[in-house]
Amino acid sequence: MTPRILLIEDEPSIAEAISWHEVPSFAQGGDHALLGITFTGNRLKSSISRFAPGIGPIIFDQGHPVKKFLLLLVCWLGGCTVAPPDGVTPITGFDLNRYLGAWYEIARLDHSFERGLSNVSANYQLREDGGVKVLNRGYHDRQDLWKEAEGRAYFIGEPTVGSLKVSFFGPFYGGYHIIALDQDQYGWVMISGPTRDYLWILARTRQLPPAVLERLIEQAKTLGFATEELIWVKQDRNDG
Question: pTM of the full predicted structure?
Answer without folding.
Answer: 0.70
